[in-house]
Amino acid sequence: MSLSSLRHWAARADHPLARALRSTKRHLQHFTLPAPKLVVKPMLWLFLGLRAIVFFVRGKLIAEPLLKAYCTRFGRGVTAGIYVPWVTGRGELVLGDYVQFNGKLSLKFAASFVARPKLHIGDYSDIGHAVSFVVGREIRLGRHVQVASGVSFRDSSGHASDPAARLAGAPPADEDVRAIVVHDNVWIGADAMILPGVEIGEGSIVTARSIVSANVAPYTIVAGSPARRVGVLPRPGEPSAEAAEAAAAAPPATPQEPPLAKPDAA
């Protein structure tokens, strides 16, 4: 009897031994040990302490130095988390002050389009876990840009649009490799995709899983595939939409008459 036949027999047969095996399996699946706090709390503290030490060593002594070694230029306070960035190809990587990577980073420089592709990330920008950049020409992120996990930036499709050229293994045409520019204080939600030639205006929000194939105006919220405008944000110094609606709905102020003067005493 083969192993698969034996497993099928144990799972389906009405034999006493098969029933006993199934009962034993159920009991083992639900078997638990007691967890008195006097025992498990020190175990947890020990685990957290050891994990913090391992993460510190991985981050400060391995991942961060290797990230900076990839950089053409980097500013103060750049941190890399605990993962060594996955970088392929050659290009210019420029990081501003206090750029923070919070997980795995995938960066591919496609030097078949230009001699030195460029990725520039501005000051105080925050890059989430599993973010990927495919740079054929240039991708530029401004200051205070927030990029959530799983976001993908691609300034090239990676393949020629013409079927014959694609079959021959030719790279995309020059007009298909277009720089991406993300201006200051932009928030890009999880799993969004930013496609070639896109410019995202200052203060905008790209919602999760949006596919951005056209420019985004400043202080705009976009969503969907392809991403379309779904809202407008107040510019600095302007009242928010809620404040404007409340002001419009408020009743007009009633003018107050000046108090009557008291007659002089006789």
TrEMBL record:
Key words, A-Z: Transferase
Assigned protein family: Belongs to the transferase hexapeptide repeat family.
Protein name per Swiss-Prot or TrEMBL: Transferase hexapeptide (Six repeat-containing protein)
Domain of life: Bacteria
Record field: compositional bias (Low complexity): 234-251
Organism of this sequence: Aquimonas voraii
GO CC terms of this entry: cytosol
Biased composition (Pro residues): 252-266
